[in-house]
């Protein structure tokens, strides 16, 4: 486009023949295009951004001067050789050398500015991609940390139960070790997978209850009401066990006669899978210590990270029942 404009200006305003105008436009602009490639590599692969302003100004003035010499002198020599018998055109070349120099300065400024713009845009894009990757990594790390926060008291109690059973009932102790091993295996595997299925989560929860039954015996009763369509529904990994642990800790532990824990999984009216864990509790139990709320707080943080919503977990206390409900989007 610049070459065509160059040619049209020579023909229209300086009465230069089409042959001379076209030849000059092609030689001047093609040669500067080649020089422009070199300028691009100078900006792209040099450390000019690390220079101070005085150093940068000196470098560009020096390069600009060299570009003028490399650009104008060879083209002038070639044009004079090609049109050596056209005295009028040769005189025009000599009289317009100042215009060529100014044009070269403008072209140099434009090319270098565009090169800097492209380089900085690429750097900015790379920084944004790196920042996005870092945020994703941090988010995944945070989710993994939240999934791995298993109550150490559960492990201590389980190991103590195994120790007590070894002499009294070795077969029962062996069964509990197997259950505890499977429980820990799933907990570790879920660290690298943000999602699981409701079926696997329920099985993991059953392992937890089987382990706890060694301590509580018939006092611990569990009822499941699971809609068949939701069995293979994807859900966040390690979401049911903290609720089951919360039900045992704050429900069963305070009721001498034991308690029935109800796990209900069903489709909701708003197009989500709804999972609720219910347990009775005694608000006036003597010696009752308030929990830290770590498990529920972790669940809220995980749901916020996964779904960017804070309305998917509800807690209801009524008629001496404690109900935690999770809503899992289908998408």
Secondary structure: elements and pairs:
Blueprint: H1 2-13, H2 18-45, H3 53-82, H4 87-95, H5 97-147, H6 152-168, H7 170-189, E1 195-197, H8 198-216, E2 220-226, E3 234-236, H9 240-250, E4 259-267, E5 272-280, H10 294-307, E6 313-318, E7 321-329
Parallel strand pairs: 2-4
Antiparallel strand pairs: 1-3, 4-5, 5-7, 6-7
Helix pairs in contact: 1-2, 2-3, 2-5, 3-5, 5-10, 6-7, 7-8, 8-9
Please, could you describe this protein's structure?
The chain starts with a helix and ends with a strand. Helix 2 (18-45) runs parallel beside helix 5 (97-147), helix 3 (53-82) packs across helix 5 (97-147) and helix 8 (198-216) runs parallel beside helix 9. Strand 6 (313-318) and strand 7 (321-329) form a beta hairpin. It folds into two domains: 2-143, no CATH class; 148-329, Heat Shock Protein 90, CATH 3.30.565. It contains ten helices and seven strands. By secondary structure, it is α+β, with helices and mostly antiparallel strands. The strands form two sheets. A five-stranded mixed beta sheet has the order 2-4-5-7-6. Strands 1-3 form a two-stranded antiparallel sheet.
Chain oligomer state: single chain
| Low-pLDDT residue spans | none
Number of domains: 2
Give the helix level as a range of percent.
55-70%
Discrete helix count: 10
**Rg from C-alpha positions?**
39 Å
Feature tags:
single chain; 331 residues; alpha+beta; Heat Shock Protein 90; five-stranded mixed sheet; two-stranded antiparallel sheet; 7 strands; 64% helix
Gist of the model:
This protein is α+β, with helices and mostly antiparallel strands and 331 residues long.
